[in-house]
Amino acid sequence: MDKFLNVALPKGRLGEKVYSMFENAGYDCPAIREGGRKLIFENKEKKVRYFWVKPSDVAIYVERGAADIGVAGKDILLEYEPDVYELLDLDIGKCRMAIAAKKDFRDDPGRTLRVATKFTNITQNYYAGKGRDIDIIHLNGSIEIAPILGLSDVISDIVETGTTLKENDLEVVETIVPISARLIANRASYKFKYKEITSLTAAVADQKEQKKV
Ligand code: PRP
């Protein structure tokens, strides 16, 4: 008998796209489309249970086994390094992690660089790799304001369309890494629900390939 699959989806625009991919892959759950404030939905026939969680929390649910699988941005995986399997690049939610600064910014390698970011770990690893001393200023959002107000020299943040940078007179100085949404799995679930997880992964991968044509 097939086992139920618990799937953590990132709440928001990316999650809607992800659910459509899963739906087209045969893992539909019509109740999800009804709207409202409900967060958990299941399709008993398809043996799938979806729940909406904050995008940055998906990896926690999956790592701890509250969800068997989920979809998380590569930024979250690089930042928190959860102990999960990364099964598939979904090729959606594409953006990049980059260093940006005011247009007139000139780096002085003799001085400690002040970097404002939500992504402390990624940023520290990046500058450690370059052997550059930095002072991390951890912020929770609206990072673009930091260099404008003199709180930092540069920022390390997600750039998607580039509009936020442009409208705040900032520009990309260097790209750290490209980002996209990844299908991840809990390590134990992958063993015990191997058939269910690999079937879903293959169906979603097919769906992704069909979209490309
Ligand atoms: C993200 C990111 C940038 C913006 C980039 O912010 O931190 O601010 O999107 O997108 P763009 O290049 O298309 O303009 P988010 O909306 O997640 O808000 P927050 O970081 O301020 O919380």
Question: How would you describe this protein?
Answer:
It contains 8 helices and 11 strands. It is α/β, with parallel strands linked by helices and 213 residues long. The strands form 2 sheets. It has a 6-stranded mixed beta sheet. A 5-stranded mixed beta sheet has the order 8-7-9-6-10. 1-O-pyrophosphono-5-O-phosphono-alpha-D-ribofuranose binds at residues 141-144, 157-164.
Short characterization:
It contains eight helices and eleven strands.
Please supply descriptive tags for the structure shown above:
6-stranded mixed sheet; 8 helices; 5-stranded mixed sheet; 213 residues; alpha/beta; elongated; binds 1-O-pyrophosphono-5-O-phosphono-alpha-D-ribofuranose
What spatial order of strands do you see in the largest sheet?
2-3-1-4-11-5
Percent in strands:
25-35%
Instruction: Give a list of the ligands.
Output: 1-O-pyrophosphono-5-O-phosphono-alpha-D-ribofuranose
Distance between the termini: 35 Å
Shape: elongated
Helical proportion, percent range? 25-40%
Oligomerization status of the protein chains: single chain
Tally of strands: 11
Question: Which spans have pLDDT < 50 for at least 5 consecutive residues?
Answer: none
Please describe the biggest sheet, giving its number of strands, its sense, and whether it closes into a barrel: 6 strands, mixed
Rg over CA atoms: 20 Å
- Helix-and-strand structural type: alpha/beta
Overall mean pLDDT stands at 95
Tell me the series of helices and strands, N- to C-terminal. EHEEHEHEEEHEHEHEEHH
How many helical stretches?
A: 8
